[in-house]
UniProtKB/TrEMBL annotation:
UniProt xrefs under InterPro entries: NAD(P)-bd_dom_sf (IPR036291), SDR_fam (IPR002347)
Annotated Pfam families: adh_short (PF00106)
CDD domains the record matches: retinol-DH_like_SDR_c_like
Record gene name: Dhrs13-002
GO molecular function, one term: oxidoreductase activity
Keywords: Oxidoreductase
UniProt key word Oxidoreductase: yes
Organism of this sequence: Phallusia mammillata
This protein's name: Dehydrogenase/reductase SDR family member 13-like
Gene3D superfamilies reported in the protein's UniProt record: NAD(P)-binding Rossmann-like Domain
Length: 326
C-alpha cells in the first residue's frame, strides 16, 4: 500500500511526464524518405521553425533555399543549416514579403536559378506590428497573406513544370489563432493599435492562410500539386518579440512561458515535415493539420464563398505583379 507521499510523488511524476511529452514537445515525425534531387523553398527559413524544418529537409538530402528579408542573418543561417545537416546544398535568397517588388524580383531570380520546385513552405509570418502598407492594408495581414499569395502565384509556373515529373506540395503555416475569425474584410484596412488588436489581425491573417490553402487546392485539382495548412503549436520563436516582449515585464513573462509552455522550434517543425512527406495524406489536400494529424476546422474556416471572395481580393491587390503563371 502506497503512502500519501508516495502517491503524490507518482502523480507529480506522471504530470511532469505528460507535460513534457504533450505540451512542451509533442509528436515527432520520422520518415525514411530521401529527398536527393528535390528542391525545397522555405520562407523565414533563417529562424525558428523555418530553420528547424530546413535542417530536417537538408538531412534528407534536399537542396534547400531559405528566403528572408535579412540577408546577413540568412547567410549565417544557411551555413548553420549546412553544418547541422552535413549537406552543403543549402542557399539563401533575399525576400521581403511586405514589398511586392521584392517578391517579383525574388520569383524572377528563382526561376532563373532553379530547375525545379518540389516543396514550397510558406512559413514566414509576423505578429504584433502595426502600420498600413502603401497599398492600404494592415502590415500583418499583408505580410502573412498577400505576400505568400503573390509569391505562390509567381512560382506556380515552376511548380507546374516540376509536377509533370514529380509530385509537388505547398505548405502554408497557419495557426490555431484562426479561431479569432470570422474574416472581416473591412477590418483589413484599419491600423490595429495595441496587443489585442494586433492579435486579432494576426488571427485574421492565419484564417486567410487556411482559405488560401483550400481555394488553391480547388484550382490545382487536375495537377500533381497538393496543398496543406497547419498549426505548428505555440513555439519559442522570434515572432512578435521586437514589439510585444521588448519591455522588462513582458520579457520576464516570455521567459517563464518559454520554460513552462512554449515548444522548441524542432517540435514546432514536425507538422511541417509531416505535411511535406507523409504519403497517406495525399487525399487530404487542402486540409488543416496539427500535431502531425488531420484536424477538423471550425465552421468559420470552411466558408467557400468567403474563400473565393478573398482570392478575388488578393488578385485585385496584386494584379499589377501577377503574370500568366497558370
Amino acid at each position: 500500500m502506497l503512502s500519501k507521499k508516495q502517491v503524490l510523488i507518482v502523480f507529480l511524476s506522471l504530470f511532469v511526464y505528460y507535460w513534457i511529452k504533450y505540451v512542451k514537445q509533442g509528436p515527432v515525425y520520422i520518415s525514411d524518405k530521401r529527398l536527393d534531387g528535390k528542391t525545397v523553398l522555405i520562407t523565414g527559413g533563417n529562424v525558428g521553425i523555418g530553420k528547424a524544418a530546413a535542417i530536417e529537409f537538408a538531412k534528407l538530402g534536399a537542396k534547400v533555399v531559405i528566403a528572408s528579408r535579412n540577408k546577413t542573418k540568412s547567410l549565417k543561417a544557411a551555413k548553420e543549416i549546412a553544418d547541422a545537416s552535413e549537406n552543403r546544398n543549402v542557399f539563401s535568397m533575399q525576400l521581403d514579403l511586405e514589398k511586392f517588388d521584392s517578391i517579383k524580383s525574388f520569383a524572377e531570380e528563382f526561376h532563373k536559378k532553379e530547375e525545379n520546385l518540389h516543396y514550397l513552405i510558406n512559413n514566414a509570418g509576423v505578429l504584433g506590428i502595426n502600420g498600413i502598407t502603401d497599398y492600404g492594408f494592415h502590415r500583418v495581414f499583408a505580410i502573412n497573406h498577400f505576400g505568400p499569395f503573390l509569391l505562390t502565384n509567381l512560382l506556380m509556373k515552376k511548380m507546374k513544370e516540376t509536377s509533370k515529373k514529380s509530385p509537388v506540395r505547398i505548405i502554408n503555416v497557419s495557426s490555431g489563432a484562426y479561431r479569432f475569425g470570422p474574416l472581416d474584410f473591412d477590418l483589413l484596412h484599419n491600423e490595429a493599435d495595441g496587443l489585442v488588436s494586433g492579435y486579432v489581425m494576426y488571427g485574421q491573417s492565419k484564417l486567410a492562410n487556411i482559405y488560401f490553402t483550400s481555394e488553391l487546392n480547388n484550382r490545382l485539382i487536375e495537377l500533381d500539386i497538393t496543398t496543406y495548412s497547419l498549426h505548428p503549436g505555440v513555439i519559442q520563436s522570434e515572432l512578435g518579440t521586437d514589439v510585444m516582449f521588448s519591455s522588462p515585464p513582458m520579457s520576464i513573462i516570455r521567459q517563464v512561458a518559454n520554460y513552462l509552455v512554449l515548444k522548441d522550434a524542432y517540435y514546432g517543425a514536425q507538422t511541417t515535415m509531416y505535411c511535406s512527406l507523409d504519403d497517406n495524406i495525399i487525399q487530404l489536400s487542402g486540409q488543416y493539420f496539427h500535431n502531425c494529424k488531420h484536424e477538423e476546422l471550425r465552421e468559420l474556416a470552411k466558408d467557400q464563398e468567403t474563400s473565393r471572395k478573398l482570392w478575388k481580393l488578393s488578385e485585385k491587390v496584386t494584379q499589377k505583379y501577377l503574370t500568366d503563371n497558370w
